[in-house]
């Protein structure tokens, strides 16, 4: 064997050793997407919000009680983890009138006015959780049987407390055809569900009905990766 051939074989052996020491590039390439997918799945579990929808009417004592004692605390504690959708209409009736709509509400004309204010607050605030807390504030101050303040006074009080700058827009919406149209649309949504009573509350991806108990705990059961407030 010539000296040149021996040198060539030595170089070849050296290169083989180097190649064997390198990581498997194919395995490395396939591992990356799997890692990325797992991270995306983890992110989706953390950020996916639990839907909760409430069909209600503004002067119904049961609705008021639910807003103050159940919905308000749940939104305050779980706001990053829930998507609250309010449907203010309840057991009302709608009929066309001179290019707009009129309503007949279970607790009288004051409730129809309150329903329109709630509908307009949702529309103007444009943040579901913030609108829910704002309407909780309105509910706290306008229960008729307790002889509390009128809607206009409560609207301004809650606006000041929560730094909501669209109070005049909410009021103007409520007393015009815009508010009537919003409430009519909520009425159509309510009629599709046909709740036997209000408040009618559904939550979770399967629209489970919440009857009574601890709303915060019920929502916590739906959250995949539990926040600290759910770890009890």
TrEMBL record:
Signal peptide segment: 1-21
Cellular component terms (Gene Ontology): extracellular region
InterPro entries named among the record's database cross-references: Interferon-induced_GILT (IPR004911)
Sorted UniProt keywords: Glycoprotein, Secreted, Signal
Location (main, coarse): secreted
One example GO MF annotation: oxidoreductase activity, acting on a sulfur group of donors, disulfide as acceptor
Compartment(s): Secreted
Origin superkingdom: Eukaryota
Family: Belongs to the GILT family.
Name by which UniProt lists this protein: Gamma-interferon-inducible lysosomal thiol reductase
Organism: Leptidea sinapis
Organism placement in taxonomy: Eukaryota, Metazoa, Ecdysozoa, Arthropoda, Hexapoda
